[in-house]
Amino acid sequence: MTTVLVIEDERPLLRALQLALQANGYTVVTAPTASSALASLGEEPVDVIVLDLGLPDLDGQDLIPRVRTMTTIPILVLSARHTSAQKVAALDAGADDYVTKPFGLEELLARLRAVLRRRGAEDGAARVDTADFTVDFSARRAVRDGAEVRRTPTEWKILEVLTATPGRLVSHHDLLERVWGPAYVKETQYLRVYLGQLRRKLEADPAAPRHLITEAGLGYRFDP
Prior knowledge:
Elements: E1 3-7, H1 11-23, E2 27-31, H2 34-43, E3 48-52, H3 60-68, E4 75-79, H4 84-93, E5 97-100, H5 105-123, E6 127-129, E7 133-136, E8 141-144, E9 147-148, H6 153-163, E10 169-171, H7 172-179, H8 188-202, E11 212-215, E12 219-222
Parallel strand pairs: 1-2, 1-3, 3-4, 4-5
Antiparallel strand pairs: 6-7, 7-8, 8-9, 10-12, 11-12
């Protein structure tokens, strides 16, 4: 099932969206603040975000680029801000679509289907094949020796970043910022732990990895 993260501080609207989306077959995760939304993104896989810009702890306009450091999943903005300049600013920040309040449920559902179709088309070729394992990002599935390998959301994000540029170094700073956010760019021990976990799950010989390569003192590289 498709999982939607709804970020909305108006509790009645948040509840109404949750019920409406669940009634239409979606799994719904809710967050009334930017901080709780960021925490949710770090804890569980999400397929699409519905974002209200008027949040109490951080303007949604500023939240969009922070989310983009963590994930590329579609962001559908819901907002009472209706000027062209406001819409353009949200789209330029990284949103995929923009719906103004008040809105109809059918329009919202149609916009959700549209952004998910676009992302599905983009991700259709997002498949990585190596001699030891296969990762299909569109299906959120990894296979090694014929068996499916379970990964955490954070492990998925690391794989997405590294495999996006095969053969190229991704620095510690860039990887930490894109996976955990700007506040964690010095926490290199996170990378050692998570890369170790990924190697144990995916590499034929984790002690001598062929695909998830460490560049000592610099960062990591994915070799197909």
